[in-house]
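It would be a great kindness if you could assist me with a short task in structural biology. The matter concerns a single protein, recorded as an amino acid sequence and a row of backbone structure tokens. Kindly check, if you would, that the fold set down in the tokens agrees with what the sequence suggests. Thank you for your consideration; the sequence and its tokens are set out here:
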Amino acid sequence: MQKILIVEDDAKNNQMLNDYLEEHGYACTQAFSGSEAKLLFGLEEYDLVLLDLMLPGISGEELVSVFSEKTPVIVLSAKSGVDSKVEVLSAGAEDYLCKPFDLPELLVRIQVQFRRRERQSGVDGSGGAGMGEHVPEQKVYAYREWTMNPDTQEMTASGCSVELTRHEFLIMELLIRNPKRVFTKQMIYEYAWGEEYLAEDKTINVHISNIRSKLKKSGTDSYIQTVWGMGFKLS
């Protein structure tokens, strides 16, 4: 049974989510503050986290990067502004759902995350990968001073380790595997997120900016070239 950590400080909403998801076959653990959520996350493994942003103790924004290193995070928040969405998606969240929302919509988004994980681990037995399907391969990719191992999710630049979020890693994987090709923002989004491109252009720009910042120390940030009016490619 798939396990979900519900992080919501409103007791009524937390219980509503818990009851609804358990009715649909999920095992849920409830947390009512950021501090409690971080403690529970360190004690047990979860398949997905539902995370409110405005929490007592540790804020949801602070927890996104911690949780997303190990498991998918769906943010549930009353903050509907673009900047808030971009911030948490850039930090590693897989999805963002604005309150109030319908429970059936949340259920579908949760199911999408689990289907995506199955595709990525090859559970569906399809034997191949297209746009948005990232089946692990026994191969290390290399481009100039970069190396990337999809199996271990590790990347180095000029011999130094580069810590990337899951989305950043997938963006880099797409570029490294196709170094001469120009990718539009839509193509990058649909590969890294595995879903239809509905985000603002700013989302991809922020991710590329974050990647360049992480590569700057190695002197290889200029490898990612902006093709104005089109997208991005490697130089």
Summary: The longest strand covers residues 3-7.
